[in-house]
């Protein structure tokens, strides 16, 4: 077992030290760190790295005082093509790494595999049994997957710091109780969404649309452009506008982090056509609660579907 007094806060110190040495032109770290509390933890405080902020709040709540959690990408825009040296230091001292997988964060999967510290890795895609070919890899938008990943993280935390196992079990029990309003909201929306249609400018929306049973009317070419992060063709935009104007879409889900351009144009067309518009984001607000974030979005969607008749 590693020694908590020596390791507590080591990730944060490594990140600060390497970031301070970035005058040579190397990219700075965009990582954020939430420190554990050795005085309040009944076992070893573990160093945990999370690839993207979509999973951060879940991991922070499960780890509590017994985990120092470093999140590499706080927003989709922060996700790197490769891990900078300051962030690689976090992987090198990590006890546990939590990644999404399914091609979403290959940079983090690679950094964990190449780490000098050989951390335990929890991959959401492996927990979910998801193949690499899934069209929408944002597994935190799949309601059935989230509790499975939480359970897998808890098991690994307890194995790595066995003296804190009862603490981690209690954290998991409390978090599971907090999740229940989200589970109930999804179930209620699923009951009310039968036969309804949607279109979206947010690629992460796909898993939730399927979970709710909403029929996707986003033109296939437009979806491909979202998934490849490329500009949609004029024909695909025209097809999207036609679907909105002709009543094929009951609700438009707009990327709340995207401003200007095509996203705004489609919002304007939807509003002119009387199609309700709701905003979802790929990640929760920085340091925000996963459950509160999803509940707020689902409430807006429920209201939009009700307004749409």
From TrEMBL:
Tell whether RNA-binding is among the UniProt keywords: no
| Protein name as catalogued | Zinc/manganese transport system substrate-binding protein
List localization entries. Cell envelope
Q: Which UniProt keywords apply?
A: Metal-binding, Signal, Transport
Kindly state a single biological-process term from the GO annotations of this entry.
Answer: metal ion transport
InterPro entries listed in its UniProt record: Bact_metal-bind_prot9 (IPR050492), ZnuA-like (IPR006127)
Which Gene Ontology molecular function entries are recorded, alphabetically?
A: metal ion binding
Q: Where in the sequence is the signal peptide annotated?
A: 1-22
Give the matching PROSITE patterns.
PROKAR_LIPOPROTEIN (PS51257)
Species in which this protein is naturally found? Blastococcus aurantiacus
Q: What is its main location?
A: other
Which SUPFAM superfamilies does the record match to this protein?
Helical backbone' metal receptor (SSF53807)
UniProt key word Cell membrane: no
Its cellular-component GO annotations read: cell envelope
């Amino acid at each position: 077992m590693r020694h908590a007094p020596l390791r507590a806060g080591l990730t944060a110190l490594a990140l600060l030290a390497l970031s301070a040495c970035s005058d040579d032109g190397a990219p700075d770290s965009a990582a954020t760190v939430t420190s554990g509390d050795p005085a309040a933890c009944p076992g070893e405080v573990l160093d945990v790295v999370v690839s993207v902020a979509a999973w951060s709040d879940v991991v922070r709540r499960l780890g509590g005082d017994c985990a120092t959690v470093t999140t590499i990408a706080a927003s989709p825009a922060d996700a790197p093509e490769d891990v900078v040296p300051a962030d690689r230091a976090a992987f090198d001292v990590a006890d546990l790494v939590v990644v999404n997988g399914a091609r979403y964060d290959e940079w983090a999967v690679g950094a964990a595999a190449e780490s000098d510290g050989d951390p335990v890795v929890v991959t959401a895609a492996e927990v979910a049994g998801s193949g690499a070919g899934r069209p929408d890899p944002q597994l935190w938008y799949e309601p059935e997957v989230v509790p499975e990943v939480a359970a897998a993280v808890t098991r690994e935390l307890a194995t790595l710091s066995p003296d804190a196992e009862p603490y981690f079990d209690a954290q998991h029990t409390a978090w599971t109780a907090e999740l229940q309003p989200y589970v109930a909201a999804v179930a209620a929306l699923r009951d009310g969404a039968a036969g309804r249609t949607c279109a979206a400018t947010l690629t992460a929306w796909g898993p939730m649309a399927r979970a709710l049973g909403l029929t996707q009317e986003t033109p296939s070419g437009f979806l491909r452009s979202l998934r490849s992060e490329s500009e949609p063709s004029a024909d695909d935009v025209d097809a999207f506008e036609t679907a909105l104007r002709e009543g094929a879409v009951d609700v438009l889900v707009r990327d709340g982090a995207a401003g200007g351009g095509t996203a705004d144009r489609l919002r304007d067309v939807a509003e002119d056509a009387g199609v309700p518009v709701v905003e979802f984001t790929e990640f929760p607000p920085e340091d925000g609660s996963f459950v509160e974030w999803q509940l707020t979005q689902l409430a807006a969607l429920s209201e939009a579907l009700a307004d749409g008749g």
